[in-house]
TrEMBL record:
UniProt entry tagged with the keyword Oxidoreductase: no
GO CC term (a single one): cytoplasm
Lineage: Eukaryota, Rhodophyta, Florideophyceae, Rhodymeniophycidae, Ceramiales
Superkingdom per UniProt: Eukaryota
GO terms, molecular function: N-acetyltransferase activity
Protein's recorded name: N-acetyltransferase domain-containing protein
Domain spans labelled N-acetyltransferase: 41-170
Keyword Transmembrane in annotation: no
Parts of the chain that traverse the membrane: none
Gene encoding the protein: ycf52
Length: 170
């Protein structure tokens, strides 16, 4: 058991030191673009707000977004550089009990970059990281229009028929 704990700790530490990966290269308007993924790095909240605006999400108070990010177990971003400026094009975050369960939140890819496999890469990297932490129950909430996307990645509607329940203040 100690071997596996050491193995995973070393692997996680190595990944934290190398937390920026070049994941995709493609040509857009005759321009070569390298897309990078970073893990648990600081994120510019205003860039995140612009990304969320680009897909039509309702704006949330920036201070609360900051609190949510600071309390997340895992954060992943996709970006590219244009004239030495970092451009955020993808994001997701995860909360967890650090042992058994994790929930993926706020998965977003900029519309200009959708359909290139970046959402799949982002989700696969999240699952890989969570499995490295030996977390085996991974959940998410999906709008009806993206259920098919998540099913293709191996997610399923709860096979036991369990339905999520919510409490909202009146």
């Amino acid at each position: 058991m100690d071997f596996w704990i050491s193995f995973f700790d070393n692997k996680i530490q190595k990944e934290k030191k190398q937390n920026i990966l070049m994941i995709k290269n493609f040509i857009n308007n005759h321009q070569n673009i390298d897309i990078y993924l970073n893990i648990n790095e600081n994120i510019n909240l205003y860039d995140l707000e612009k990304l969320c605006d680009s897909v039509g999400w309702v704006r949330r108070p920036i201070k609360k977004v900051e609190i949510a990010i600071n309390n997340s177990f895992l954060i992943m971003c996709l970006f590219y550089y244009n004239n030495n400026t970092k451009n955020l094009i993808g994001f997701a975050r995860v909360t967890s009990d650090n042992a058994f369960n994790a929930t993926i939140w706020d998965v977003v890819i900029h519309p200009k970059f959708q359909g290139l496999g970046l959402g799949k890469i982002l989700m696969n990297q999240i699952v890989k990281q969570l499995r490295n932490y030996d977390i085996s129950t991974i959940t998410l909430f999906a709008d009806p229009q993206v259920i098919k996307f998540y099913k293709h990645l191996g997610f399923m509607i709860d096979p036991d028929g369990v339905k999520g329940m919510f409490w909202y203040p009146l």
